[in-house]
Amino acid sequence: MDVSQGRKGQPMAGSISPAGETFTGNRALHLEEPLIFELDAQGRCGVDLDPAPAVQDRLGGLKRRAPVGLPGLSEPQVVRHFTRLSQKNYGIDSGMYPLGSCTMKHNPRLNEKLARAKGLGDLHPMQPDSTAQGALELIDTLAHWLKTITAMPAVAMSPAAGAHGELCGMMAIKAAIDVRGEKRGRVLVPESAHGTNPATAAACGFSVDSIPANARGRVDLDAFKAKLGDDVAAIMLTNPNTCGLFENDMIAIAEAIHDAGGYFYCDGANLNAIMGRVRPGDLGIDCMHINLHKTFSTPHGGGGPGAGPVVLSAALAPFAPLPYVVHDAAGYRLVEHDEGGDAQPFGRLKGYHGQMGMFIRSLAYMLSHGADGLRRASGDAVLSANYLLASLQDVMSASFPGPCMHEALFDDHFLKDTGVTTLDFAKAMIDEGFHPMTMYFPLVVHGALLMEPTESESKETLDQYIATLRALCARAKSGDIQTFKDAPRFTPRRRLDETAAARKPVLRWKAETEGTSAAQ
């Protein structure tokens, strides 16, 4: 349907109000909001600026010939516009985020207060080490606890996100193989892996060889062993895996890959399910990235921010990237250049040294919880997921038997012959006030619905979520297809043709395109 903005002051096509219900298109406090460019009035500005003095430009003929294209608005208009847009957002402070594989949990306000503390919130990355001793000590302390939690001897703190951490780990593996003078170009990746895993392996120049899953949703151990050879560099495995299941053959997999001369990379995106209970280093893992923004409460989504430190085994520790923090008699300092000795860093992964705001929040989370609190958090996350699984498996189709870890996975078999798809079901959830779960992932499950409630949600919230899904299941099976096809009905914009919009997106607003649809 048409989801474009209308003319100023007129009801909008596809607005939250049926045409003619209100003159403005508003629905009480649900206010219709045009694009900021449609509010533009030439010459209007939120501040008074003195005319710029005449100067001879040095732009070499590149002087702007047309207006910059920014809208002119008064200060109240700008504030109201962005406030109204923010009210249309769904966030973790608004309600439950059951996104599987994402771990969107509550971020304690204590963390935010500390991240804004004087002396931390106003640090500059180029100030001398001598003036940032507290910050460097904080990084070193966080690194210590990451190593303790994972039972790994070294950690690279600079990676900026999970996929960046994957890149760091695989580059360390590649550096270790190069030092050995071997030609190993193949990486084994389970078919249920996060999509970034094979992408990272390919980006490092490796070929990707997929490993099938067994009937229990875990890596098929025999199929894995059959693919081993002297050209295998590593296996990239997620544990708990993307189906929400613990890979119980971890030690056997580690022993087999090491006997073949390869390394064991573990995707640590799901550490929230096992922290304080399982130490990855005890499982034979050589390197693992940790999504601080998933496990230790830092808010993420919408493009950032994130942090992905990588813990390393003794075999890979020498190849950790620059820079890294050291502590000696002179205090804390950043090692910016290769100083020789046993260290053989593969280079610099990014500018400066990681995401300081994320480090502060994560350490605050760790210290406020303590070892017992972290253990309880992971236990509560698993308990919440299993509560969903047990409460829904009689009306929805669970993809694998038995208990799950941190997320419950369902497929679309329960919707068979109803005419309702996974997408329809998720859109109907929006009308009920819930953010949809992860849809159609992992790809190994048809029509997947992957739910991760985390430890942050109360039983009352989970019960309401369960009751809502059960009601939607009953409605789908009653034959009320149209309700699902029309959903969402109460959002600022209705459902659009997502395929056409993806193939023919309108990425830039132009005044002459008013009245066109997003799919044109």
UniProtKB/TrEMBL annotation:
Instruction: Give the keywords, sorted.
Output: Oxidoreductase, Pyridoxal phosphate
Q: Does the keyword Oxidoreductase apply?
A: yes
Q: Which domain of life is it from?
A: Bacteria
Q: Does the keyword Oxidoreductase apply?
A: yes
Q: Which GO terms describe its molecular function?
A: glycine binding; glycine dehydrogenase (decarboxylating) activity; pyridoxal phosphate binding
Question: Region annotation Disordered: residue ranges?
Answer: 1-21
Q: Which GO terms describe its cellular component?
A: cytosol; glycine cleavage complex
Enzyme nomenclature, EC number: 1.4.4.2
Looking at the record, the residues that make up the Glycine dehydrogenase C-terminal domain are 378-473
Q: Alphabetically, which GO biological process terms does the record hold?
A: glycine decarboxylation via glycine cleavage system
Q: Which reaction does it catalyse?
A: N(6)-[(R)-lipoyl]-L-lysyl-[glycine-cleavage complex H protein] + glycine + H(+) = N(6)-[(R)-S(8)-aminomethyldihydrolipoyl]-L-lysyl-[glycine-cleavage complex H protein] + CO2
* InterPro entries reported for this sequence: Aminotrans_V_dom, GDC-P_C, GDC_P, PyrdxlP-dep_Trfase, PyrdxlP-dep_Trfase_major, PyrdxlP-dep_Trfase_small
Q: Name one Pfam family in it.
A: Aminotran_5
Any signal peptide, and if so, which residues? none
What are the residue boundaries of the Aminotransferase class V domain, all occurrences included? 183-301
Q: Supply the NCBIfam families for this chain.
A: PRK04366.1
What does the protein in this record do? The glycine cleavage system catalyzes the degradation of glycine. The P protein binds the alpha-amino group of glycine through its pyridoxal phosphate cofactor; CO(2) is released and the remaining methylamine moiety is then transferred to the lipoamide cofactor of the H protein.
How is this protein named in the record?
glycine dehydrogenase (aminomethyl-transferring)
Q: Which organism is it from?
A: Varunaivibrio sulfuroxidans
What lineage is on file? Bacteria, Pseudomonadati, Pseudomonadota, Alphaproteobacteria, Rhodospirillales
